[in-house]
Amino acid sequence: MRQKQSLFVLLIMLTFGSCTPSENQMNNQTVIGKANIQTTDRKLTPEHLQLFGQVSGISVSPDGRTILYGVSYGDIALNKRNRELFTVQIDGNNRKQITKTPKSENESQWIKNGRKIAFLYGGQIWEMNPDGSDLSTQ
């Protein structure tokens, strides 16, 4: 019975593992990002507030030099939000957007003693270098 369960799990992993999107597929759809907010009479409306980026998921690298965080952006016309990942040095310098994808990156974590960042995307675990390079699925 245990062999059947192991074989079943292996078949599922092979089937769904081969269905992972490539980096190009991740970037070939509409990406919701930072909006150009314009006001009339210098008044903000509830709609304007929905367009502001919302920061979440802040974590400091193991060496204490870099902050990893997410920013969620909204699109009122599409009625959707999208979360992207950013890094910034602890002193506030060198802010960098490290993802730009059509779906949200969630649950981002420093792994491998800060040499990599792992996150959930499209129901799968992905990892990349802290500069956003070397993106791969696990």
3D architecture notes:
- The protein is α+β, with helices and mostly antiparallel strands.
- It has one domain (26-137): 6 Propeller (Neuraminidase).
- Helix content is 20%, strand content 35%.
- It has three helices and eight strands.
- The strands form two sheets. A four-stranded antiparallel beta sheet has the order 1-2-3-4, with no helix packed on it. It has a four-stranded antiparallel beta sheet with strand order 5-6-7-8, with no helix packed on it.
- β7 and β8 form a beta hairpin.
- It is globular.
- Mean pLDDT is 78; it is low at 2-27.
Quick gist of this model?
With 138 residues, this protein is of the alpha+beta class.
Give the helix proportion (percent range). 10-25%
How far apart are the first and last residues' alpha carbons, in Å? Answer: 28 Å
| Rg computed from alpha carbons, rounded to a whole number of angstroms | 18 Å
Query: Could you state the CATH homologous superfamily?
Result: TolB, C-terminal domain
The number of distinct structural domains comes to: 1
Which CATH architecture would you pick? Answer: 6 Propeller
SSE blueprint and pairings:
Layout: H1 2-17, H2 23-27, H3 46-51, E1 54-60, E2 66-75, E3 80-89, E4 96-97, E5 106-111, E6 116-121, E7 124-128, E8 136-137
Antiparallel strand pairs: 1-2, 2-3, 3-4, 5-6, 6-7, 7-8
Keywords:
138 residues; alpha+beta; Neuraminidase; 4-stranded antiparallel beta sheet; 3 helices; 8 strands; 20% helix; 35% strand; disordered N terminus
